């Protein structure tokens, strides 16, 4: 089975052009926003650490080795991009162990900026969100688009948000624009040619390992490596979620709540079902104000939380992907919900010549590349 990602619709129109993202690691800066201030006391040491070209799990392993602690004593709230400049918290449970001299911690690409303590463990998912500073260079517009269109698109995203798609990092996919006269065979690994939505230039897409592994899961192959299996499962579930967002845009029901939709309260994981006809106008008003959000299923066992029209819509979407849903059911995952829209907070930009600099905050688990995707291919 082949899982495609190239057809997912943008919300605000076709790609305006293309540019270069992460020309340098400092072109993509991510900074965690915990949502609380460490207490300053307790048996849990919190390290505020800056890293480049290192993944989070590897840094955790190195901290454990340095502190002579079991890896289970090292925690973090979320994983951060390897190919970026990121700042995040690591938790170190010392208890009866001797605290090391953190000034002696030496790892190329990493430095500890602050050491404090907290009375509770740092757990996955406690983040309020992340602050991003993103620079896109060498911007070239597609035919028919110019600077004015870019500024208008940015205003639309600021006011209306963007689809809460899982980004290409989740799938391990790399997409690059390549001149027409460059044969795929000249590039390793081989690239798959896909025409972009504007129909003006081929986009070369390399299917990454996570989605390829997900296809193996569907075909019944065993993935013995625990971490790779986990990434494959995550990619498969995320793919189906993105597919449902695509259908909401395609069928013009992204900005409106269907009868029976599961509505999430903004800034919360709580949701309610929009199943009262007399409340529809009120829900629409709250949706427009971004007080609530339509959700889509993170697929698993159990009944859908939606009802009426929304349930019919979601079942129709997944009916085309029975092998995917069956695989996720067999894995024992439970039905969950996730908002289909993100609205960047404190969204600001600077555009000079062919360089665009963006800064904004997103809730935990949301992808900055999904904001960038609404503008152009990178």
Automatic annotation (TrEMBL):
Pfam families, per the entry: TruD
Cellular-component GO terms for this entry: cytosol
InterPro entries registered for this protein in UniProt: PsdUridine_synth_cat_dom_sf, PsdUridine_synth_TruD, PsdUridine_synth_TruD_CS, PsdUridine_synth_TruD_insert, TruD_catalytic, TruD_insert_sf, TruD_pseudoU_synthase
EC supergroup of this enzyme: isomerase
Superkingdom of this protein's organism: Bacteria
EC number: 5.4.99.27
Catalytic machinery residues: 81 (nucleophile)
Domain TRUD: 161-342
GO function terms (MF aspect): RNA binding; tRNA pseudouridine(13) synthase activity
A GO BP annotation: tRNA pseudouridine synthesis
Keywords: Isomerase, tRNA processing
Reaction(s) catalysed (UniProt annotation): uridine(13) in tRNA = pseudouridine(13) in tRNA
Family, similarity comment: Belongs to the pseudouridine synthase TruD family.
Role summary: Responsible for synthesis of pseudouridine from uracil-13 in transfer RNAs.
Name of the protein in its database record: tRNA pseudouridine synthase D
Gene field: truD
């Amino acid at each position: 089975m082949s899982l495609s990602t190239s057809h997912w619709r943008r919300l605000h129109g076709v790609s305006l052009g293309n540019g270069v993202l992460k020309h340098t690691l400092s072109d993509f800066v991510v900074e965690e926003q915990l949502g609380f201030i460490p207490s300053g006391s307790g048996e849990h040491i919190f390290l505020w650490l800056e890293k480049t070209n290192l993944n989070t799990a590897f840094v955790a392993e190195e901290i454990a080795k340095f502190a002579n602690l079991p890896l289970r004593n090292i925690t973090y709230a979320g994983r951060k991009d390897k190919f970026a400049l990121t700042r995040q918290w690591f938790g170190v449970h010392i208890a009866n162990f001797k605290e090391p001299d953190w000034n002696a911690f030496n790892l190329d690409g990493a430095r500890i900026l602050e050491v404090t303590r907290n009375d509770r463990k740092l757990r996955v998912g406690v983040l309020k969100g992340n602050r991003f500073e993103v620079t896109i260079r060498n911007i070239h517009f597609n035919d028919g688009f110019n600077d004015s269109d870019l500024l208008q698109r940015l205003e639309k995203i600021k006011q209306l948000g963007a689809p809460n798609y899982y980004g290409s990092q989740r799938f391990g996919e790399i997409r690059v624009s390549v001149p027409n006269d460059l044969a795929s065979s000249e590039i390793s690994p081989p690239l798959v040619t896909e025409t972009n939505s504007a129909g003006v230039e081929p986009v070369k897409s390399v299917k990454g390992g996570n989605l390829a592994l997900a296809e193996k899961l569907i075909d019944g192959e065993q993935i013995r490596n625990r971490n790779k299996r986990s990434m494959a499962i995550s990619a498969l579930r995320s793919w189906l979620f993105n597919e449902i967002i695509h259908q909401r845009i395609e069928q013009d029901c992204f900005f409106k709540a269907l009868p029976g939709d599961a509505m999430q309260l903004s800034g919360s994981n709580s949701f309610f079902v929009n199943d009262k006809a007399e409340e529809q106008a009120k829900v629409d008003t709250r949706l427009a104000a971004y007080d609530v959000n339509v959700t889509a299923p993170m697929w698993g066992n159990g009944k859908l939380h939606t009802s009426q029209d929304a349930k019919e819509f979601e079942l129709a979407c997944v009916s085309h992907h029975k092998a995917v849903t069956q695989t996720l059911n067999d894995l024992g995952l439970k039905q969950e919900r996730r908002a289909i829209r993100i609205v960047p907070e404190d969204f600001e930009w600077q555009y000079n010549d062919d360089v665009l600099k963006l800064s904004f905050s997103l809730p935990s688990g949301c992808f900055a590349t999904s904001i960038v995707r609404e503008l152009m291919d990178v």
